[in-house]
Amino acid sequence: MNLHKTFSSPHGGGGPGVGPVCVAEHLVPFLPGHPFFGNSRNTVAAAPYGSAGILPITYGYICMMGTEGLTKATKMAILSANYLAACLKDTYGIVYSGATGYVGHEMILDCRYLHDEVGVSEADIAKRLMDYGYHAPTLSFPVHGTLMIEPTESESLAELDNFIDVMKSIWNEIQEVKNGEVAKDDNVLVNAPHPEYELVASEWNHSYSREKAAYPIESVRENKFWINVARVDDAFGDRNLVAKRI
């Protein structure tokens, strides 16, 4: 059981999830053991060195919510995901949907074609979202070149609508690049995010305005989250570990 999201367990940095292994009694002899537990079949969680202290959070959440509450939360999570999918399918496009056209508790925006057609990648969109005050959703998983969004049951309609406005605003920025209105190598997407120290610097060497970089829509102006650093090369950092003595 993956206990993140609806079951309230932290999902740390995009994964992995955590949860107990649950089977019917006749399958107990086939459960994996581990030397740490004396090869016992009664391990607490799937990760033998994981923190069992996380699991009571979920247990408490389930007890407080009850059957009715958990059912409602699940329905709201599915409804929220389908609301986003319905509002964004005519721009980015949705990668997966069921036979009836609906998605599950998450929806996947298709950004794969943008790199070849426009020169904008899913990573550029993820970086630009930071300028709008959003931490990027799951990037390039489970499908490379996509953004997987899981609104859960906890987001209000106002928050969902604001996120839709943000994604549509970014879509318009992508179209500006596609239509040649802005340079492919100098636009708010490929240069995102824009930290405060760049925006207030005496020199500004971009073809677009500081205002466009910092305040693309009114809701950002009303509640701006300032980025601490400009763009970093995530992939390089992931592939090149640098040990630092403290």
Outline of the structure:
By secondary structure, this protein is mainly alpha-helical.
Helices and strands, with pairings:
Layout: H1 55-88, E1 107-110, H2 112-117, H3 122-131, E2 138-139, E3 146-149, H4 157-178, H5 196-199, H6 210-214, H7 218-222, H8 234-239
Antiparallel strand pairs: 1-3, 2-3
Protein model, in words:
- This protein has helices at 55-88, 112-117, 122-131, 157-178, 196-199, 210-214, 218-222, 234-239, and strands at residues 107-110, 138-139, 146-149.
- Helix 1 (55-88) crosses helix 4.
- The radius of gyration is 22 Å and the shape is globular.
- The protein folds into two domains: 5-76, no CATH class; 79-239, Alpha-Beta Complex (Aspartate Aminotransferase, domain 1).
- The protein has 246 residues and is mostly helical.
- Stated plainly, the CATH topology of the largest domain is called Aspartate Aminotransferase, domain 1
- Determine the mean pLDDT: 88
Strand order of the largest sheet: 1-3-2
From the N-terminal CA to the C-terminal CA, the straight-line distance is: 38 Å
Give helix and strand order, one letter per element, not per position. Answer: HEHHEEHHHHH
How is the main sheet built?
Answer: 3 strands, antiparallel
Low-confidence stretches: none
CATH superfamily of the largest domain, by name, is: Aspartate Aminotransferase, domain 1
Domain module count: 2
| Estimated structural class | mainly alpha
Tell me the overall shape. globular
Number of strands: 3
Helix content: 25-40%
CATH class of the largest domain: Alpha Beta
Strand residue percentage: under 5%
Radius of gyration: 22 Å
Return the CATH architecture of the largest domain: Alpha-Beta Complex
- Helical stretch tally: 8
